[in-house]
What does this fold into?
Amino acid sequence: MNLSVEQLRMILRTSFPIPIAFLIGIPSLIGYFGIFLQWSDYSSDKLNRTPASAYDFVVVITIFLPVGGGSAGCVVAARLSENPEVSVLLLEAGGNPNPISFVPLAVPFLQNHPATDWQYKIVPLKTSENPPVYQPLSWPRGKGLGGSSTTNFMIYMRGNPKDFDQWANITDDSTWSYANVEKYFNKMEDYHGRYEGLGDNHGKNGPLRIEPLKYSPGLENILAAVKEVGFSVRDLNVNQQEGFSPIDFTQKQGRRHSAYSAYIQPILGRPNLKILRYSHVTKIKPLVNLPVGKNLADHVLTYVGPFIVKKKGNVPVSLMQEDVTFKSLADFVFNGNGPLTSTLGLLAAGVTCSSTSPGWPNLLYLFLSLSIYDGFGATIDRVSGSGNYTKDFLQPFIGNDAHFVALSPGKPKSRGFIELLDNNPFSKPIINPQYYSDSGNQDIQDMIEGYETIVNLYENTNALGNKLGARLVKIPSCSRFEFKTRSYYECAIRTAIRTLFHPVGTNSMGKIGDPHAVVDSQLREISRHYRVLGTRGLRVIDASIMPEITNANTNAPTIMIGEVGADLIKRAFHLN
Ligand SMILES: Cc1cc2nc3c(=O)[nH]c(=O)nc-3n(C[C@H](O)[C@H](O)[C@H](O)COP(=O)(O)OP(=O)(O)OC[C@H]3O[C@@H](n4cnc5c(N)ncnc54)[C@H](O)[C@@H]3O)c2cc1C
It folds into this structure.
């Protein structure tokens, strides 16, 4: 397929108008580069219309949490089609990954945009301090091949071994124990991360490329500070224990490596794999009554900060402005490094235990450092659906260098739900995550401890407090509370409620007889055990089957679920 420069411009303009801000300085070059990356896929003839009935496996379908060619769906399609005697049809409601999605720095533009995102909203939260004008908040979900792995922040984290042993206990099936799933993590990894060569702890020959942080001004101060307060810097992906680490990313030569890039793109030529894009699955007639949509768990997020950094020159990304230059473009294209590989200035991650969870980390930290440029607050508000809240809050600090820490209760107790709005399969569902609704108020108490840890780290250490002069900014709407007290922190946490984008649990695995279970430990809908007609053969393989959320970002565990699920099907059908 030949495209003229004018046609390329059209594709960029029509498929993705928003990155205009991103392209400041070097407009069309980045866009052309993105298209070049995807050239072969745009010209592929995979968009065929073979009827689904001709296929042995249709990789898709769940009623509430969408599954298609996402993180898990790509894995299942790729693994099942390894057997040439099997035909696989992958159905996906969206299209190819948008070319711009391969540039990590473009990540904020992928959310809440109709070309790449489902644009869900959650119901207004009763537990929020935010005035209703800043709600309803957005709940981004990736649309298109690769699903949310095509729009996410690329953080690679497996989770804690105890998280998976907990699944094995709930299901009474050692398939889900860490001892077993660790083999699948190794199988999927092509590990070239920060800890490469420091032990035989990661997979080397899998499809999913993992690379270390490539652009990290300011990182060393964070690592020095965590050591000062007594935490270790360690690989959080190996037998996770309390500690902090530079983040490893699902990137290949600095570009996004989604489940689609890792699992599907290399096998597009397989004759037994067909992909139908723009195929929205619509069958919704209920056959069985199961608790689908209940048990919704998510990592609710609070941005702690900004911590204004007085000493200049220690902060990297002023996203889309000074850092985006011809040099940075050349670094990205030729060396796979530089500012364009950064996702919003993310540098380090951490996990710690609150006092209620000794020995099992239940708080999750992600460190970002960037300069607050004009337009940054508006970008965050557009992603979050928070009106002008962030824009107004950050207005006085434009031009300052800053750090933020995204803090989350990694093992939240609160549970929400998702329900159908009506029987129109194109209607958006009702999503109520019920953040901070647990009866014992434990989630808030844990978060306050996390908040205190962060403030101590920034203000009372030599590396951050003294050398950089980092200081926490006060949130005006919480000024009725004394600054830096527990009540102030609770107000701050409830004011800046956001999602960390990790909803799970709405098709939970469980034992037969468990009232919360939708699927059994083999991922078959549980009603098959009661011989419900018309449902045999249906399996759910995606993030929704997690009975409890992992204290980690959920892409890696979801890809692992895809690997395990594909093996379960292969075994059941005696394939290999
Ligand atoms: C903005 C964002 C940032 C994130 N950041 C990170 C991160 O940095 N690190 C991390 O580990 N995790 C991150 N996550 C979470 C992680 O990406 C998800 O947990 C994971 O991708 C979920 O995989 P899945 O297969 O369950 O669903 P998805 O990957 O979301 O796939 C679902 C697929 O189903 C398709 N679909 C939906 N409905 C239908 C239908 N009716 N018919 C056909 N197809 C349909 C969708 O279009 C989509 O392609 C992030 C998520 C988001 C949204």
